[in-house]
C-alpha cells in the first residue's frame, strides 16, 4: 500500500536525486562522517561495558550469567574496534599517506593498533579467567576486572579523540570520489562481520546518528541491493521499535516492504546471541588487526 501512494511516487525520485547531488558536491567526505558516527557507537558500548563491570564488582556474585553477558559485550566491542582498525590499516591511512606523500599515518596506526590488540586480548583473557572461578569467591578479581575495563575505556576514548583531532581534517581534504571508493572497499572488507556487528553498534548510537549513518551509506551501497538489505535487516533486529519507526519514516523510499512495519512483539537481538552468531560466522582465537 505504501509504494502505491501518489505521495510516495512523487517524492521517491526527488530524494534519490538529492542524494546523488550531495554525493557529487559534498564538501566533507562521507568516510569522515561515517568514522565519527562509528566512534559514537564505540563510546556508547564502552560506557555500557564499564558500567556493567562496575556493577558486577559491587553486586552479589551468585552465578555467571551477568558476567558472561558482559564478556559477550566486550567481545562484540573489540571485534567492532578491530574491524574499524583493519579498515584504517588497509584502506584509510594508505590513502592519507598517498595524499600527503608520506608514510607517517600508516606507521603511527600500526604502532597504536598493535598496542590496542594486546590490551583487547588481555582484557578478554581476564574475563575468561573470572568466568572459570567459583561465583561468590572472586570479589577481588571482579574488582580488578572493573578497574581494567575503566583503564581500557580511558585509553581507547583518548585514541578516538586523537584520531578525530588529527586524522579527520586530513581526510576531509580528499575528493568525494576517493571517499566513495574507500566506503565501497570497506564493504567488501567487512562482508562477513558487518551484518553481525552493525546492528549492535547502531543500537548504542543516538537515533540522529543512526539516520545519518544510513544516509551516508546509501552513497556507497545501491538501495535494494543484497548488501543494503543485509545491513537493514541487521539493524532491524537490534534497534528498538521506536528507533525503527524513525528509520522507516526517513527512508521509506528505499526500505524493502518487508521491513516497513515493526512486527508486533518486536524484540532486540540479545548481546549473547549476537556474539555467538558473529563467532560462528567468522571465528577467531584472538583479536588481530591485519597490516596487509
Question: What key attributes describe this structure?
Answer:
12 helices
Secondary-structure map:
Blueprint: H1 6-25, H2 30-58, H3 65-100, H4 104-131, H5 139-166, H6 168-171, H7 176-189, H8 194-202, H9 207-217, H10 226-238, H11 241-250, H12 271-281
Helix pairs in contact: 2-3, 2-5, 2-9, 3-4, 3-7, 3-8, 3-12, 4-5, 8-10
Explain what you see.
It is a single chain. The protein starts with 5 loop residues before the first helix and ends in an 11-residue tail after the last helix. It is built from twelve helices and no strands. It is globular. Helix content is 73%, strand content 0%. The chain has helices at 6-25, 30-58, 65-100, 104-131, 139-166, 168-171, 176-189, 194-202, 207-217, 226-238, 241-250, 271-281. Helix 2 (30-58) packs antiparallel against helix 3 (65-100), helix 3 runs antiparallel to helix 4 and helix 3 (65-100) crosses helix 8. With 292 residues, the chain is an all-alpha fold.
Total count of helical runs of at least 4 residues: 12
- In N-to-C order, the SSE pattern is HHHHHHHHHHHH
Mean pLDDT: 85
How many β-strands, per DSSP? 0
Relative helix content: over 70%
The biggest beta sheet reads: none
Cα radius of gyration in angstroms: 20 Å
Structural class designation: mainly alpha
Envelope shape: globular
Distance between the termini: 49 Å
Low-confidence stretches: none
Strand content: under 5%
Short description:
The protein is mostly helical and 292 residues long. It has 12 helices and no strands.
